[in-house]
Amino acid sequence: MRAPIGDFPDARPAPEALELLPEPVSAAVAAWSGPVPADQLVFVDSDPAVADTADFVAAHGSDLLSASANCVVVAGRRGGETRLAACVVPSAARVDVNGTVRRHLGVRKASFAPHEVAVGESGMEYGGITPVGLPADWPVLLDAAVVDLPWVLLGSGRRRGKLIVPGKALLQIAGAEVIEGLGR
To answer: pTM for the whole thing?
Structure first.
């Protein structure tokens, strides 16, 4: 199979790469349903040494930069309660944590979740977190620009490998909603 974007020697439908995905991502891909079928989710294998966006784009194609998105975990606090959420924005954008995210979650304070919380609660590797397979009770906030892309390059849950999915497929994730002004 040829990946829909980028240059990858190993690309395959994600349902055929379940063994290369961490358990929560593998389970989500195996249970995937909706208007965008699971075989349109593409896994591309890659070297974890080039997992960061700039290095990845240099290794696999400049067309990936405009199609890359980052998924970051945010912790919002109000009273004694902490609420986790995922934010998916174009890789060239920054998440508006203290404005848009804080207001949307209805919390007094919001910040990027600590490394150990993001990894421990998601079951994924830091630097590879993807919205596919996150806990179902987490809000998954999507920047409209990501949803509008024909193809989006995301983490695979590990630093090794990436997922390439139609932008509209992200709307099939539990808790997903489009948030205007999420990335800036």
So the answer is: 0.95
